Amino acid sequence: MERIGVIDTMFARYDMGTEALDELTSCPGYGERFDTLHQTVPGFKDLAVAAKAMIEREGCRIVVVLGMPGKAEVDKVCAHEASQGIMWAQLLTTTPILEVFVHEDESDDPEVLAAVCVDRARKHARNAYWMLYEPDQLTRRAGQGVRQGFADAGPLPRRS
Amino acid sequence: MERIGVIDTMFARYDMGTEALDELTSCPGYGERFDTLHQTVPGFKDLAVAAKAMIEREGCRIVVVLGMPGKAEVDKVCAHEASQGIMWAQLLTTTPILEVFVHEDESDDPEVLAAVCVDRARKHARNAYWMLYEPDQLTRRAGQGVRQGFADAGPLPRRS
Amino acid sequence: MERIGVIDTMFARYDMGTEALDELTSCPGYGERFDTLHQTVPGFKDLAVAAKAMIEREGCRIVVVLGMPGKAEVDKVCAHEASQGIMWAQLLTTTPILEVFVHEDESDDPEVLAAVCVDRARKHARNAYWMLYEPDQLTRRAGQGVRQGFADAGPLPRRS
Amino acid sequence: MERIGVIDTMFARYDMGTEALDELTSCPGYGERFDTLHQTVPGFKDLAVAAKAMIEREGCRIVVVLGMPGKAEVDKVCAHEASQGIMWAQLLTTTPILEVFVHEDESDDPEVLAAVCVDRARKHARNAYWMLYEPDQLTRRAGQGVRQGFADAGPLPRRS
Amino acid sequence: MERIGVIDTMFARYDMGTEALDELTSCPGYGERFDTLHQTVPGFKDLAVAAKAMIEREGCRIVVVLGMPGKAEVDKVCAHEASQGIMWAQLLTTTPILEVFVHEDESDDPEVLAAVCVDRARKHARNAYWMLYEPDQLTRRAGQGVRQGFADAGPLPRRS
Question: Is D127 helix (H, G, I), strand (E, B) or coil?
Answer without folding.
Answer: helix
